[in-house]
Write a structure and sequence with these properties.
- The protein has 16 helices and 16 strands.
- It has 532 residues and is α/β, with parallel strands linked by helices.
- The strands form 3 sheets. A 6-stranded mixed beta sheet has the order 2-1-3-4-5-6.
- Helix 2 (73-81) packs across helix 5 (210-223), helix 4 packs parallel to helix 7 (253-264) and helix 7 packs antiparallel against helix 8.
- The N and C termini lie far apart (92 Å).
């Protein structure tokens, strides 16, 4: 700032008894004049920043303070959230003359990116007794700062093609936050960092508070993140307000699950159902920005009253949704026909259900010597897989692997996959697989049972399968078997298969008699091996 500008602002500020500020472009032109109250300014809407991580606004704020206070938290919030080039404060004395000067700029990343940074680490601050003593080459400073951010951003882009995300937790549930981190890994997104703000109620506008918004912006610049992933579902206006405030793309829990489903869908059925769920999610979130820049279709013959571009976009989405729903309905009828033919052969049906990543596909492979793709990731299986299996009683059964369940699955997602989940309705026995080594076994078991009740499948007989018991001591396995009346196995080690088949046969005989009764040899309740 020039001495003349500092003197002019100080005089006006003292005369009005209010803070006065100006937003100055890099070419030296004053873009906005802002008049506040005695303690703060309220900056005008200067538009959304474009250009991604490391880009600055090209504006600096120079304003007055009347009470001798230093740069405030609000000043630093404005600096961070608006990504201003700098914020400068001029202290005004009782005579209306400019005094002490204080300047703050966003600092480059701290030396250790993995270390937790203090709020002050994010800012470079400079102070002088007056404007004449301010030793600063602003143009050189901002050019060097942008070059440093640009260099680090290019370096990150060269290392990986994955999106880099800040994972933000706003609930008090630690387990839910850990689950979202697992979902992020399953989606193939690189975690740049995590932030928590445990709140009983989320901010109705921007999800998190203003102070946390500043931290998110600064952490995204420091860790080169371009996406923010939340552990809750966001309302459309919340997502837009957060994106406008931070410049980051906001992804909620449902979007994350849909992205995983889109990556994993291989069959025509799965792809149709994923697209349907995505469109239903997107419809209420369509904005004019998404639909196009022009309000009307525009051009000769397109002017005048009529549908806006956004209305046209919404109508097309609804048309596509109706068409997909019709195709999904046809799929449902085809599945019903296949199930009817299968039932005409009087073959009992076993369906494997359970929380995602409980080991359902691994169990199917172990029971049928198949090679269905299985991995230690959430939602590895999306499309249902069926195999035939011959039980020792010379009886054949059909065994089906299904998509994994998750707590609080979105209603649209369940509705879109109803054609797949209908497979469960004709099952004679549900093999409910749980991860016995999971600390949250009880909660996940209840979540699956709740979803089965919602799908009107509560009356189908169930056999609880305690998987991954090879990771637990024998005494704990015995306790779990007794507590849950389940069958202990290790699908990956092929342990306990004989006992599981015996238990499944007994459960099936109660629901649908098999061909021949016979005495099963005694089996060890933990290992599943025959006892001599």
């Amino acid at each position: 700032m020039s001495p003349e500008l500092a003197k002019h602002l100080a005089g006006i500020s003292r005369e009005l008894g209010r803070q006065v500020g100006v937003l100055i472009g890099r070419e030296g032109v004053i873009r906005n004049v802002v008049v506040g109250d005695a303690t703060q300014l309220h900056l005008p809407d200067i538009g959304r920043l474009r250009g991604g991580v490391g880009r600055f606004r090209g504006l600096r704020l120079v304003h007055t303070h009347l009470r001798g206070e230093s740069l405030t938290a609000d000043d630093l919030n404005d600096l961070a959230l608006l990504r201003l080039d700098a914020v400068a404060m001029i202290e005004v004395d009782q005579a209306g003359a400019p005094g002490r000067i204080e300047v703050a700029m966003i600092a480059p990343m701290v030396a250790d990116e993995d270390a937790a940074a203090d709020a002050e680490d994010f800012f470079h601050r400079l102070e002088a007794r007056d404007v004449y003593a301010l030793d600063m080459d602003f143009e050189a400073e901002i050019e060097e700062l942008e070059a440093e951010f640009s260099r680090r951003t290019r370096g990150a882009a060269g290392k990986t093609t994955k999106e880099r995300a800040l994972v933000i937790g706003v609930t008090t549930d630690d387990d839910r936050f850990e689950e979202v981190l697992e979902l992020v890994a399953a989606a193939g997104v690189e975690v740049a960092g995590t932030l928590r703000q445990r709140r009983q109620r989320v901010d109705p506008k921007t999800v998190v508070g203003k102070g946390k918004l500043m931290e998110i912006v600064l952490e995204s610049m420091r860790r080169r993140a371009d996406v923010a992933i939340f552990d809750i579902d966001l309302k459309p206006n919340q997502a837009r307000a957060f994106e406008d405030a931070t410049g980051l793309k906001a992804i909620d829990r449902t979007q994350l699950i849909l992205d995983i489903f889109a990556q994993r869908a291989t069959s025509r059925d799965g792809k149709l159902q994923v697209e349907l769920a995505q469109l239903k999610y997107s419809l209420p979130r369509l904005t004019e920005k998404d639909a196009g820049l022009s309000r009307l279709a525009g051009g000769i013959g397109g002017r005048g009253p009529g549908e806006t571009v956004m209305e046209i976009g919404r109508r097309r989405l609804r048309d596509r949704i109706r068409a997909l729903e019709k195709q999904v309905e046809d799929l449902s009828k085809q599945r019903e026909l296949r199930r009817r033919r299968r039932n005409e052969g009087d073959l009992p049906v076993l369906s494997i259900v359970g929380y995602t990543n409980a080991g359902k596909s691994t169990l199917l492979n172990a029971m049928t010597n198949s090679e269905v793709e299985a991995a230690d990731q959430l939602f590895m299986t999306l499309d249902p897989t069926s195999r035939r299996l011959r039980f020792p009683r010379e009886g054949e059964v059909v065994i089906t692997d299904t998509v994994g369940f998750l707590s609080d699955l979105p209603a649209d997602l369940v509705a879109a996959f109803r054609a797949t989940l209908e497979e469960l309705a004709d099952a004679d026995l549900l093999l409910h697989v749980v991860d016995a080594a999971d600390d949250h076994l009880e909660e996940k078991k209840v979540a699956v049972e709740k979803l089965l009740d919602e799908l009107d499948l509560a009356d189908i007989p169930r056999l609880l399968v305690l998987n991954k018991v090879d990771l637990l001591p024998k005494r704990e396995v015995e306790f779990l078997v007794k507590r849950h009346q389940g069958v202990a196995i290790s699908a990956s080690k092929r342990q306990g298969m004989k006992r599981l088949i015996r238990g499944a046969e007994e459960a099936l005989c109660a629901a649908k008699p098999m061909l021949n009764e016979y005495d099963q040899p005694p089996v060890d309740e933990v290992t599943g091996e025959l006892v001599n």
